[in-house]
Specification:
Elements lengths: L16 H16 L5 H6 L1 E10 L2 E2 L3 E8 L4 H4 L11 E8 L6 E6 L11 E8 L2 E3 L4 E3 L2 H13 L5 E6 L5 E8 L2 E2 L1
Antiparallel strand pairs: 1-3, 1-9, 2-3, 3-8, 4-5, 4-6, 6-7, 9-10, 10-11
Length: 183
């Protein structure tokens, strides 16, 4: 008599794509946040701008510094060639090197075709009276929070933001200086 062995029915092996596709999608979602700014960070032109800081604390996000930029104030924008009252939407600032900070030399509501050598174009979005460069918040470690808060109260003006701007006008904040302290 022949004996036959039967195998107990169990779960079938899943195809490997069922593991790799969800994992790949999760990795893409994580990279989607910093990816648009990566070219600016890697190969952008280093620019220094004067800031107008505010020091908020968000209970959900911790301590951060909300930065405003001097070039985006009404007083500066209204004096720039290309300014038009009542405009909103995309806005492009042409920046020229200066000391200690770069200066806005022109503003436009269309991307300029060319700029003088050494100048850069910084893109933003004009919303009423404010311009969003996507450089407005700088998060820091809780341990630096008190030190930064004291520095901001001691030096309300003359603070500088270090940014990098790529060829498309996209910028990334790389640090900032309050008084003589770099954060």
């Amino acid at each position: 008599m022949l004996e036959t062995k039967t195998r107990a029915a169990g779960p079938a092996a899943l195809p490997t794509w069922r593991f790799w596709v969800p994992l790949g999608l999760q990795v893409l979602m994580v990279l989607a946040v910093p990816l648009p700014k990566l070219p600016a960070y890697a190969a952008g032109t280093a620019v220094v701008l004067r800031t107008v800081p505010v020091d908020p604390v968000d209970l959900m996000r911790g301590r951060y510094v909300a930065l405003g930029y001097e070039i985006a104030t009404d007083a500066v924008m209204k004096k720039l060639p290309g300014w038009k009252e009542g405009m909103s939407g995309p806005v492009y600032f042409t920046l020229a090197p200066g000391q200690p900070a770069w200066q806005a030399v022109a503003i436009g509501f269309e991307r300029p075709g060319s700029v003088p050598a050494g100048d850069v174009v910084l893109a933003g979005k004009l919303n009423g009276a404010s311009v969003d460069f996507e450089l407005g918040e700088y998060y820091l470690a809780e341990s630096q929070g008190e030190r930064l808060n004291n520095a901001l109260h001691d030096h309300r003006t003359g603070n500088l933001a270090d940014i990098k701007v790529d060829g498309h006008g996209t910028a990334v904040l790389t640090g900032f200086t309050v008084g003589t302290t770099r954060f």
